[in-house]
């Protein structure tokens, strides 16, 4: 069995939940740490739960110690932050950027991040610009191996109701043949599979995965 340790940020979300389920069934990582803001009920012999104040850099740094791989799937919505862009930025920018920075400090060699299709720091769209800025900052850190997942609309059962996805998912499925492949809806489980497969590869550098790349590597 490998003696590697993986840290997961965002395990309570759609992709994060799928990711955690896959990792718990795969003995590639001897230890799995989930960094959470509130108590997490799941119990497993290989699972360590770290309660983290993500506004406290020391709390995050300590929780990431001894991590070989960091999986970051964290994200919020405008509804959750009530339209406050600064609050949105604290989750979608600060957490992944700090996680990557502190991961580098503790010797983590692999960072796997969920971004979004169309991410671009020069975009006029707040969301895509933010995701692009995160990618740019992570790239600057020069971690040995960075894997960026850029899914479009996600398919899967969320814990919370999202009216935009409820309406948009059937439409996206129906029109997917008209769209470039990178915009095709993708199952959250396939994104999670791609994350695990990418983390096991020896690929070095800053690698970006869009729809076809994720489907391919997930097989």
Would you write up a description of this structure?
The protein has 219 residues and is α/β, with parallel strands linked by helices. The protein has a single domain, classed as NAD(P)-binding Rossmann-like Domain (Rossmann fold, 3-Layer(aba) Sandwich). The chain is built from seven helices and nine strands. The strands form two sheets. A seven-stranded parallel β-sheet has the order 3-2-1-4-5-6-9, sandwiched between helices. Strands 7-8 form a two-stranded parallel sheet. α3 packs parallel to α4. The protein is globular, with a radius of gyration of 16 Å. 37% of the residues are buried.
Q: Which key terms come to mind for this protein?
A:
single chain; 219 residues; alpha/beta; Rossmann fold; 7-stranded parallel β-sheet; two-stranded parallel ribbon; 7 helices; 9 strands; 41% helix; 19% strand; globular
Which CATH top level class fits? Alpha Beta
Number of strands: 9
CATH H-level superfamily: NAD(P)-binding Rossmann-like Domain
What CATH calls the topology is Rossmann fold
**What is the average of the pLDDT values?**
91
> Span between N and C termini?
22 Å
Give the helix tally. 7
Report low-confidence residues grouped into runs of 5 or more.
Answer: none
């Amino acid at each position: 069995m490998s003696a590697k340790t993986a840290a997961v940020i965002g395990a309570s979300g759609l992709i994060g939940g799928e990711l955690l389920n896959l990792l718990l069934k795969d003995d590639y990582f001897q230890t799995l740490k989930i960094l959470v803001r509130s108590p997490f009920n799941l119990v497993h012999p290989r699972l360590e739960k770290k309660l983290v104040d993500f506004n406290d850099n020391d709390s995050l740094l300590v929780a990431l110690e001894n991590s070989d791989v960091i999986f970051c799937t964290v994200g919020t919505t405008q509804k959750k932050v009530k339209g406050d862009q600064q609050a949105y930025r604290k989750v979608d920018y600060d957490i992944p950027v700090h996680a990557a920075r502190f991961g580098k400090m503790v010797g983590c060699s692999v960072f796997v991040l969920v971004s979004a299709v169309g991410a671009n720091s020069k975009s006029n769209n707040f969301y895509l610009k933010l995701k692009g800025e995160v990618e740019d900052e992570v790239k600057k850190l020069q971690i040995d191996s960075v894997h960026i997942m850029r899914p479009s609309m996600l398919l899967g059962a969320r814990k919370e109701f999202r009216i935009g996805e409820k309406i948009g998912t059937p439409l996206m499925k129906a029109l997917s043949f008209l769209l470039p492949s990178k915009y095709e809806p993708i199952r959250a489980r396939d994104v999670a599979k791609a994350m695990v497969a990418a983390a096991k590869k020896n690929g070095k550098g800053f690698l970006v995965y869009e729809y076809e790349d994720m489907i391919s590597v997930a097989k």
